[in-house]
Specification:
The complex is a heterodimer of chains A (255) and B (78). Chain A is an alpha/beta fold. Chain A contains 10 helices and 10 strands. Chain A has one domain: Rossmann fold, CATH 3.40.50. The longest helix of chain A has 16 residues. Chain B has a single domain, classed as Alpha-Beta Plaits, CATH 3.30.70.20. The chains are: A alpha/beta (255), B mainly beta (78). The structure holds thiamine diphosphate and iron/sulfur cluster (3 copies). One iron/sulfur cluster binds next to β1 and α2 of chain B. The site of one iron/sulfur cluster has 12 residues of chain A, from α9.
Chain lengths: 255, 78
């Protein structure tokens, strides 16, 4: 029997559609940007857990500064790097709410290093999502603490030289050593398999808040194809080859 | 024997032509159109619809939530 596309495209055969928590606003990210995939997953997770009314997100400064336009939940916008401090305040005032922060590597691992480390060390009962694309995407691809040795950025066009620029920083391993963190994992979003794993990690990060046992911290090794001056597909390949050896995927802590 | 037949619908208005779905499809269903949408992007479409199994891999990697996936079980001729 021949089946036509019309027979397949029927409501009863629907297996995937855009989350109803995503607004109609088109995302401003460059084509193929990892931020879009992770924003989408967070919307799906909040929808599937039924937490639309219970969740408060904290947006950063960086390319994802407008994230509050895209997911229909309550939000607060933090000053650059201060999302974990604002997340702390919100969670302490409204402990019954689910609170998450969303930050890039310039935000979380450079200007906001103190807030990151102290929120994790205090064991704030929040979920922190960390998008590590190795540079400052929004401001023109400058070197970040996370930039790999030898990796080119607009402020180190011939590659990061540890003698001159210091060594790349693995924030995720650092926070895993702190007693306040409960769940620390490093994920990616470049393949369907990676996306499905990341989604499970996000679900865990939200659910962990019910138990009040410390901070959940999820790094997503990401691409900034515009800043890296590659196509989105090339950027994913470059990430697998160069980022994953230094930022290996997997759970680092789960207690 | 039954097999899975799938189909996707791409929102060509919001597609940014990033090609991540093209890369993610295990059965080479998707291609980018020669024409561009209003934003100037070569949008994704099913070049080879017969091969779609409805696995949703394309939708998983799309940063702009442009892809809707349908899937049905079809009896294969003996
Ligand atoms: C106090 C302050 N210092 C500097 C800036 C400039 N600035 C804006 S975004 C940004 C870095 C963003 O990089 P990252 O957090 O990695 O996010 P991405 O854009 O890569 O997603 C900087 C330095 C600012 N807005 N405010
Ligand atoms: S500059 Fe980089 S991080 Fe920012 S939207 Fe573009 S690809 Fe994404
Ligand atoms: S649903 Fe699966 S088979 Fe169909 S186009 Fe998407 S990736 Fe390809
Ligand atoms: S992944 Fe999404 S935005 Fe990119 S080409 Fe495919 S449908 Fe378009």
């Amino acid at each position: 029997m021949e089946v036509s596309i019309k027979d397949i495209i029927k409501p009863e055969n629907l297996v995937y559609q855009k989350s109803s928590l995503l607004t109609e606003k088109p995302m401003h990210y460059c084509p193929g940007c990892t931020h879009g995939v992770v924003n989408r997953l967070i919307a799906e997770v909040i929808e599937e857990l039924g937490l639309q009314q219970e969740t408060i997100g904290v947006t950063p400064v960086g390319c994802s500064v407008l994230l509050y336009n895209y997911i229909d939940i309550d939000w607060q916008e933090a000053a650059h790097g201060r999302a974990p401090a604002l997340g702390t305040a919100i969670k302490r005032l409204l402990p019954e709410k689910y609170v998450f922060t969303y930050q890039g590597d310039g935000d979380l691992a450079a200007i906001g290093t103190a807030e990151t480390i102290h929120a994790c060390n205090r064991g704030e009962n929040i979920l922190m999502v960390f998008i590590n694309n190795g540079i400052y995407g929004m401001t023109g691809g400058q070197m970040a603490p996370t930039t790999l040795e030898g990796m080119a950025a607009s402020t180190c066009p011939f590659g990061r030289d540890p003698e001159r620029d210091g060594n790349p920083l693995s924030m995720t391993e650092i926070v895993a050593t702190l007693p306040g963190t409960r769940y620390v994992t490093r994920q990616a979003a470049h393949t369907a398999g990676a996306v499905r794993k990341l989604k499970k990690a996000l679900i865990k990060g939200f659910n962990n808040q019910k138990e009040n046992k410390g901070t959940s911290f999820i790094e997503v090794v990401s691409t900034c194809n515009s800043g890296w001056k590659m196509t989105p597909v090339q950027a994913n390949e470059w990430m697998v080859e160069n980022m994953f050896p230094f930022y290996p995927l997997g759970d680092i802590k789960d207690k | 024997m039954a097999k899975m037949k799938g189909a996707i619908v791409v929102d060509m208005v919001s597609c940014k032509g990033c090609s991540l779905c093209v890369e993610a499809c295990p059965t080479q269903v998707i291609g980018l159109a020669d024409e561009v949408n209003a934003k100037g992007y070569n949008y994704a479409y099913m070049v080879n619809p017969e091969a779609c199994t409805g696995c949703s891999n394309c939708a998983m990697v799309c940063p702009d939530s442009c892809i809707t996936v349908y899937r049905m079980r079809v009896a294969e001729p003996a």
